[in-house]
């Protein structure tokens, strides 16, 4: 019995009801695993890891003295999402991204949401990712956030919450695609008998969306993917997606602007570029518009964009909706622009520039999660219940020195799922990052990336902090 010693604990388990009774959507998978002979799961796990190694699925860790490149940890026990549950998630994500897009467009134009008192003007004025250069810009179709990765978590009561929105350069979708390839090899019979929604059409959907964004006068758009280079933590993903879409992978030095038009250097001369899927943050993408010391971007790119001669995905300035302080206002944003109640809930969030909220947080640091508003990847964060007195004191000093730079949230008990750890099945905390494409319409990859906190008891799922991933199976019915 593979699950004889598995324990769900006091958490919501994605595969089992309390008492280790398989959930309806997971029964077939549990039965398959239970019939495996001793050592078969281990053999399949090792086979999957060898496949990932040969496929070169890696990520880079900044500041890692042992070497920058690592194989992305993978767990072969998939997460199962029932069709009805996924339909609710999908509708909630579509609602959320439409509202956030309208918000971004508003803040760079009339700022009606501020004038109507829904969001304090101070929040926008102090948002580090608000770009004054973008005021008055009109991206094609007034769509700003073309690719979004929204992090979802489930609390012990079974309720799904949005943990954060990633609207600048969200990463991880390549692991969704590669995990599925490996799982089809590892469990071929399951895929033959199960109705699992496919994810392998994502690159073609992404390219279609990019071509849709091309300037109106272009009939055969040339698209490129702009990467910071080989030392970026997501470089594997950049090269993989470019290859899958059949477009050029370029660095800033490969592009040049002339008369507000962007060209790519090739061995046969300059070739005009119409659409750029950029994986370079605003700060570094154009030294003439943003950081003058950047060597990663393209001088003059912003002016070419403003002139309508090239389109960027995501648009300049989308990071304003990534600010974790603005996250607290998303329910109001949804209601204001769509006149609808949010389908997906936010976590309760304390804004530390408010004295009363700040005092409450400082008195309860051991029970809360504190996050820097502009950080990602699990950095700049304090998890109160797992922190030391020294760490809490350090964050107390940081908060008092710059309260606008931090928010706090309750510590929620992430749901767990079975993972194959040291030749046995153990529960580990997981989250879910679906990927949303927004062009002429909104489409979502079924499931997305399930990230796993592989360290026992850990709530941090980021790969840079010891996390891994598993395949996510959304059932058709």
Give start-end ranges of low-pLDDT stretches. none
Which band does the percent of strand residues land in?
Answer: 15-25%
Biggest sheet, in brief? 5 strands, mixed
N- to C-terminal separation?
28 Å
Can you tell me about this structure?
By secondary structure, the chain is α+β, with helices and mostly antiparallel strands. The protein has 15 helices and 23 strands. It has helices at 27-34, 40-55, 83-107, 112-115, 121-125, 173-186, 188-193, 202-212, 235-245, 282-285, 301-306, 324-327, 330-338, 355-363, 389-401, and strands at residues 58-60, 69-71, 74-81, 147-154, 160-166, 223-226, 248-250, 255-258, 261-266, 269-272, 275-278, 311-313, 345-346, 350-351, 368-372, 381-383, 406-410, 416-421, 424-433, 435-438, 442-444, 449-453, 467-474. The protein has a 5-stranded mixed β-sheet with strand order 3-23-22-19-18. It has a 5-stranded mixed β-sheet with strand order 13-5-4-20-21.
Quick take:
The chain has 477 residues and is of the alpha+beta class. It contains 15 helices and 23 strands.
Could you give the topology of this structure?
Elements: H1 27-34, H2 40-55, E1 58-60, E2 69-71, E3 74-81, H3 83-107, H4 112-115, H5 121-125, E4 147-154, E5 160-166, H6 173-186, H7 188-193, H8 202-212, E6 223-226, H9 235-245, E7 248-250, E8 255-258, E9 261-266, E10 269-272, E11 275-278, H10 282-285, H11 301-306, E12 311-313, H12 324-327, H13 330-338, E13 345-346, E14 350-351, H14 355-363, E15 368-372, E16 381-383, H15 389-401, E17 406-410, E18 416-421, E19 424-433, E20 435-438, E21 442-444, E22 449-453, E23 467-474
Parallel strand pairs: 3-23, 5-13, 6-7, 6-11, 11-12
Antiparallel strand pairs: 1-2, 4-5, 4-20, 8-9, 9-10, 14-17, 15-16, 15-17, 18-19, 19-22, 20-21, 22-23
Helix pairs in contact: 2-6, 3-13
């Amino acid at each position: 019995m593979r699950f004889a010693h598995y324990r769900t604990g006091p958490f919501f388990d994605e595969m089992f009801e309390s008492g280790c009774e398989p959930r309806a959507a997971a029964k077939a998978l549990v039965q398959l695993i239970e019939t495996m002979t001793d050592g078969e799961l281990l053999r399949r796990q090792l086979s999957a890891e060898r496949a990932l190694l040969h496929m070169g699925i890696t990520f880079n860790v900044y500041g890692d003295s042992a070497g920058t490149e690592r194989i992305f940890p993978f767990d072969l026990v998939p997460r199962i999402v029932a069709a009805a549950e996924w339909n609710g998630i999908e509708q909630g994500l579509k609602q959320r991204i439409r509202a956030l897009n309208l918000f971004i467009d508003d803040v760079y134009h009339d700022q009606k949401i501020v004038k109507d008192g829904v969001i304090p003007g101070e929040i926008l004025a102090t948002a580090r990712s608000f770009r004054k250069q973008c005021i008055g810009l009109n991206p094609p179709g007034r769509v700003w956030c073309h690719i979004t990765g929204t992090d979802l978590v489930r609390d012990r009561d079974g309720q799904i919450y949005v943990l954060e929105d990633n609207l600048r350069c969200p990463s991880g979708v390549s692991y969704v695609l590669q995990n599925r390839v490996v799982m089809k090899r590892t469990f071929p019979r399951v895929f033959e008998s199960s109705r699992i929604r496919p994810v392998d059409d994502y690159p073609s959907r992404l390219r279609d969306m990019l071509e849709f964004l091309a300037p109106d006068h272009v009939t055969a758009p040339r698209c490129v993917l702009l990467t910071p280079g080989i030392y970026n933590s997501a470089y594997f993903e950049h090269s993989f997606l470019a290859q899958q879409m059949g477009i050029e992978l370029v660095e800033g030095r490969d592009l040049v602007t002339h008369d507000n038009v962007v060209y790519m250097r090739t061995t046969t001369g300059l070739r005009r570029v119409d659409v750029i899927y950029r994986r370079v943050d605003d700060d570094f993408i154009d030294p003439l518009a943003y950081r003058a010391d950047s060597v990663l971007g393209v001088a003059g790119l912003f002016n070419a964009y403003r002139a309508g001669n090239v389109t960027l995905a995501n648009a300049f300035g989308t990071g304003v909706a990534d600010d974790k302080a603005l996250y607290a206002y998303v329910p109001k944003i949804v209601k204001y622009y769509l006149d609808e109640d949010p389908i997906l809930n936010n976590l309760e969030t304390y804004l530390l520039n408010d004295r009363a909220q700040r005092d409450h947080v400082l008195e309860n640091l051991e029970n809360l999660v504190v996050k820097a508003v502009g950080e990602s990847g699990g950095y700049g964060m304090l998890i109160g219940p797992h922190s030391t007195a020294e760490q809490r004191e350090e964050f107390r000093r940081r908060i008092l020195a710059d309260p606008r730079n931090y928010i706090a949230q309750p510590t929620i008990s992430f749901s767990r799922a079975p993972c194959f750890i040291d030749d046995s099945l153990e529960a580990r905390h997981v989250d879910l990052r679906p990927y949303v494409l927004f062009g002429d319409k909104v489409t979502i990859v079924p499931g997305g990336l399930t990230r796993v906190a592989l360290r026992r008891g850990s709530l941090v799922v980021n790969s840079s902090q010891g996390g891994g991933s598993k395949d996510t199976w959304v059932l058709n019915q």
